[in-house]
Design brief:
Chain lengths: ~240, ~450
């Protein structure tokens, strides 16, 4: 397998250049004078790197027995990437064609809570799958309090694969690992459910980012799960 | 870097003897025994193949000291854990030889969950001349027996018998990544991602947990154990490495549970090289004590480092294995190559260190002269008894004729497992499903 030439990084490097000029913060990755920034690859993670990491995470979880080292390293990397992307209070909003900066910022802010919640519930579901793998049944009221759970979403059968491993291998379930990870990219409000593949948040104005080696099955699976989970909370929301 | 220096003075006159092709399976571990007479390999299919070095004979000087297959056996089978609905891989993760105490040889082999002790014995004589049985073993007609004879032992073709003597099961929830025999020859330890257990070689139904880094809340899990090893001389000391690039030296005399380290070896992050992948590339994939016991060798994604046990703040030596990959980390993250776990090895005199890389390349660093060499293990590039030619990876700029460009490297050809004979300049290199044994005929003495 050959390494691809660096072409697909080019656009993100240009974005990074713009962002570096616009922001004045005391963080190493954004300091234009810092020697690391001069020679390093994109110092601010592009959304595609974030997407890639989230997919790796899910792929790792899908293994019958996840490689704990791989999982932990991906989670830690994801946290670093997320930390570099999350706007802080001191920062002006990230400029984003076509959306207005303020809109982008508030979108992120409002979707944070919803998506943290949805990710948490997704992983909560995963940790309960063990009980379902023998006989698929509607989820009992085992969800965290305050989260109404209807019938099992149609896609839940595909989660059987994950079932026994996640709760056996990591006794307390995995949801806690990801509570602090903001996956606002995957808010179904921002993301047309019948579109193919991944779309980054509109703020960078791109279409489908150059996806890494994803197979259709993985994307569909991810879609099903997220949209299906959303369906639990908002039965009248966008369906598949 | 070192690649550009004149390599003529490096002793790279290795001769290749054979390439032993194990077509069926990918080699997952390689280990010489304490004398170097035997070489064990484990593969993904759960088999162990042992090679034995032929004694040097004057009649056939060209074939002196070559390795031939001695024994092959199935160590582990795939298992199904019914409770968790999981299949347990039979792949052999590690093999460690026990010091030889009698005529038999013993080794420990482990997969993800179970460690087994195997005893290897030779049978080269058999008794003949029984009174009650004939040559085929049938009972004789007693009326034909007129005198008594004493059965005598007669030579027979060598038969190597392997038998499982102990099975150490159910000690680990997570995947075993290393085993190490203590210098006391009575105990050994096994390490998985979160715990390290101490076993007595004669007792299989219990083990002592000596390290446990599992957090009370799995949400707080940020670090796993990646490798561990007992000190070669001090039976109370062992080291384990982590995914965050730290080494912890522990003393079993200090406490029953060695969660608190005696020494923590950690190099501060280099701010000029920071990236999102810093942690991943700092993850230590292998740790080996030097034969002297004074140093430790670690391998992370881009470097090998030598640590002095007396200095915790930083390694005393750092060698770049393939620095040209630093600008490719994003792609290597994408294709998961950044998670590859390379091993490292000392030579017998602790003066040279070796580790594998991509494109079937492996690297050697001479600690005294500071010279290094890149060699390739492949059938295409070397014929039997030919001298290995040093290779060079070019990163742009001037390119010599036989150089390989970084973008042409084959990342599916990785040399993860290497071993060095304990006393001589003989190395074993596992390249996917091929085993290469290289001998230095010119300089067989260590210096």
């Amino acid at each position: 397998m050959m390494l691809s030439k660096g072409l697909k990084r080019k656009r993100e490097e240009e974005e990074v250049e713009e962002e570096k000029e616009a922001l004045a913060v005391d963080t190493w990755w954004l300091d234009p004078g810092h020697p690391a920034v001069a020679q390093a690859p994109p110092a601010v993670a592009s959304s595609s790197l974030f997407d890639l990491s989230v997919l790796k995470l899910h792929h790792s979880l899908r293994q019958s027995e996840p490689d704990l080292r791989h999982l932990v390293l991906v989670v830690n990397t994801l946290r670093r990437i997320q930390a570099s992307m999350a706007p802080t209070a001191a920062l002006p909003p990230v400029p984003s064609p076509p959306a207005a900066p303020g809109v982008a910022d508030s979108l992120l802010a409002s979707s944070d809570a919803a998506l943290s919640a949805s990710m948490a519930s997704l992983l909560e579901d995963l940790s309960h799958i063990e009980g379902l793998s023998q006989a698929p049944q509607p989820l009992a009221d085992e969800g965290p309090p305050g989260r109404p759970i209807g019938g099992a979403p149609p896609s839940l059968g595909t989660l059987d694969l994950l079932g026994p491993a996640t709760s056996c291998l990591l006794d307390d379930g995995l949801e806690g690992l990801f509570e602090d990870i903001d996956t606002s990219m995957y808010d179904s409000e921002l993301w047309a459910p019948d579109s193919e593949g991944l779309k980054p948040v509109p703020e960078d104005g791109s279409g489908k980012a150059e996806a890494p080696e994803l197979d259709e099955a993985e994307l569909d699976y991810l879609m099903d799960v997220l949209v299906g989970t959303q369906a639990l909370e908002r039965p009248s929301g966008p369906g598949r | 870097m070192g690649e550009d220096t004149d390599t003529r003075k490096i002793n790279h006159s290795f001769l290749r003897d054979h390439s032993y092709v194990t077509e069926a399976d990918i080699i997952s571990t390689v280990e010489f025994n304490h004398t170097g007479e035997l070489l064990a390999t484990g593969d993904k299919g759960g088999r162990v193949v042992i090679f034995q070095r032929e004694p040097e004979s004057k009649s056939a000087p060209r074939s002196q000291g070559e390795y031939d297959v001695y024994s092959t056996f199935q160590s582990h089978e795939p298992e199904f854990d019914y409770l968790k609905s999981l299949e347990i891989e039979e792949k052999i993760n590690k093999i460690k030889w026990l010091p030889q105490q009698n005529a038999a040889h013993s080794l420990l082999s482990t997969n993800d969950k179970t460690i087994k002790l195997w005893k290897i014995t030779e049978r080269d004589k058999r008794p003949e001349g029984y009174n009650l049985k004939d040559e085929e073993g049938k009972l004789k007609d007693l009326s034909t027996v007129t005198s008594l004879q004493v059965p005598v032992l007669k030579p027979m073709d060598l038969m190597v018998e392997v038998s499982p003597r102990r099975v150490f099961a159910n000690g680990h929830t997570y995947h075993i990544n290393s085993i190490s025999v203590n210098s006391d020859c009575e105990t050994y330890m096994s390490a998985d991602d979160l715990r390290i257990n101490l076993w007595h070689l004669a007792i299989t139904d219990r083990s002592f947990n000596i390290v446990d880094i599992k957090p009370a809340n799995m949400e707080d899990l940020t670090e796993v154990i990646t490798a561990s090893e007992f000190h070669p001389h001090h039976c109370n000391l062992f080291v384990y490495s982590s995914s965050k690039g730290s080494l912890r030296l522990c003393d079993m005399r200090a406490a029953a549970l060695c969660d608190k380290h005696s020494k923590l070896f950690e190099e501060p992050e280099d701010p000029s090289n920071r990236s999102f992948f810093s942690e991943i590339i700092s993850s230590v994939s292998d740790v080996k004590f030097s034969h002297s016991g004074r140093y430790m060798l670690t391998r992370d994604y881009l470097t090998v480092k030598v640590w002095d046990l007396n200095m915790e703040a930083r390694p005393i030596e750092t060698y770049q294995v393939h620095e040209y990959l630093r600008s490719k980390l994003c792609s290597l993250y994408e294709n998961d190559c950044i998670f590859d776990k390379f091993e490292c090895a000392w030579n017998g005199s602790d003066s040279v260190i070796m580790t594998g890389a991509y494109n079937n390349f492996f690297r050697m660093f001479d600690r005294n002269t500071k010279r290094d060499v890149t060699l390739e293990a492949s059938r295409e590039s070397s014929k039997p008894r030919a001298v290995l030619k040093p290779r060079r990876v070019c990163v742009g700029g001037k390119r010599r004729r036989d150089d390989i460009s970084v973008d042409s490297l084959d990342f599916t050809k990785k040399i993860l497992h290497t071993a060095w004979h304990p006393a001589e300049n003989i190395i074993a290199i596992a390249a996917t499903n091929n085993l290469y044994i290289f001998q230095d005929k010119v300089n067989s003495e260590m210096h």
